[in-house]
Amino acid sequence: MSPTPTVDPDRVIIFDTTLRDGEQSPGASMNLAEKLEIARTLEALGVDVIEAGFPIASPDDFAAVKAIAEQSTRARVCGLARSLTGDITRAAEAVKPAGSRARVHVFLATSAIHRQFKFAKAKPEILKQAREAVAYARGLCDDIEFSPEDASRTEPDFLAEVVEAVIAAGARTVNIPDTLGYAYPNDYADLITYLRKHVRGIDDVVISVHCHNDLGLAVANSLAAVRAGARQVECTINGIGERAGNCALEEVVMAMRVRKDQFPGITTGIISEHLFGASRLVQSTTGLPLQRNKAIVGDNAFAHESGIHQDGMIKNPENYEIITPQTVGVPGTTLVLGKHSGRAALSKRLTELGLPVQESDIGKLFDAFKALADRKKEVYDGDLIALVEEVIRGTTVSAWKLDYLHTSAGTEAVATATVRLSRNGEVVTDAATGDGPVDAVVCALNRICAVAGTVEDYRLRAVTKGGDALGEVSMRANVGGVIVGGKGLSTDIVHASALAYLDAINRSAYQSKKLDYHASGA
Ligand code: MN
């Protein structure tokens, strides 16, 4: 029925788990519209597999995976499941709309410590459960991936036994996760080599790796595994994920591309010019800002500060540059669009940036663009990316909207904020004082929305250059005990702060209670 992902020795399959493992980052949960937008962006970026979620976790997760499967046109869409029939049935149902591109990813912990303390099961029982889960999944879906959770801490001989059993049961991809980020590149490569030597049938399946960054080695471990024969890398945009995060997609892809000498003949399907746009979208959607010195996509990744370097750059960029900013889609500072630019030009530029906006959103986006172009004569790529995020984010339904904001503050005055909000025809106005205008706004919003909330982390960033630049506020807030991210964009920073906090309040209402599970190894 489906085209099997045959093992191409020259192709490394990029398996993106931003929407599953990435979403497990505290405060990173996304709503349906945001997940769909990220999934579209991932397809435009050229990822081979999108792990869209964990369907059994909640009705919302199920709906999101199903919607992504329906929307997808090219990438495989994968749903995660524990080795339980209920999980597997649900996952298979969710990915079904992707047709021959549907994948179910089944996992089960295999290490001694997990066997004993998580399951209180002996090796034979684990082996049997893994085999039966894969066989069951294979009855529902052709493309099955299996992950022995905590593989890097599992006895190699037992790991080989499990991997052999799941291949015999029909798994087409076997993932060897370094669940705790404990592996070391040489050892991890040796483990892959060991499995290739000792597991019957392993040459007919794709060996995958899934590395966490607890020791900052996720990318190094993934690269070592690829050199040892792994042909699928599980990764996330910006390296987001449980704890210290996952292998960063942009880093592992560019390392293989720039160091072709280490990876002769190896290719991926990633369109590197779209990396920056994807990074920005994920950064702002999840409310997880990047450090400025982040490799490949950080604000400073291409900034040359010292005079000696600047002089060298002017003489020949190759003196100090192993990747050009253009290669990874870092927006130029040249003016791209102005107030006289039309809808088609806007649409074209967004596609070039790797942000394929849906037809139904273009109208809203164009209005926002015109409004911005009126306030700010020059609209840069960075502004456009921010606008897309803003418009997509604004598509949430039945949420509070900010209709009016007035603040007064000064060194001698008590800061006060007057705010008017509306929701489904209901309009409420209130005022509050605080320690500064932002605090006053937060207090007023808490009163109107009847929530007990505090701001836990607050960041302000100028999206582009100049005094009239858009200010982007991203914050983490605790709203009634729920940690949630919020973002706001405006040329006025108090206004941006109000939008960000209101966004957090709106999102806290969506945060559905999720099944408490530990899937970090899968
Ligand atoms: Mn994980």
Counted by DSSP, the helix tally is 16
Number of separate strands: 14
Q: Reading side by side through the largest sheet, how are the strands ordered?
A: 1-2-3-4-5-6-7-8
Query: Span between N and C termini?
Result: 26 Å
Q: Architecture of the largest domain, according to CATH? A: Alpha-Beta Barrel
CATH topology of the largest domain: TIM Barrel
What's the quaternary structure here?
A: single chain
> What's the CATH superfamily of the largest domain, by name?
Aldolase class I
Percent of residues in helices comes to 25-40%
Mean pLDDT: 88
Folded structure, characterized:
With 522 residues, this protein is an alpha/beta fold. It has 3 domains: 265 residues, Aldolase class I (TIM Barrel, Alpha-Beta Barrel), CATH 3.20.20; 77 residues, no CATH class; 113 residues, Alpha-isopropylmalate synthase LeuA, regulatory domain (Double Stranded RNA Binding Domain, 2-Layer Sandwich), CATH 3.30.160. Helices cover 39% and strands 19% of the residues. The protein has 16 helices and 14 strands. The strands form 3 sheets. It has an 8-stranded parallel barrel, surrounded by 7 helices. Helix 8 links the parallel strand 7 and strand 8. Helix 7 packs parallel to helix 8. The C terminus is likely disordered. The structure holds manganese (II) ion (MN). Manganese (II) ion binds next to loops.
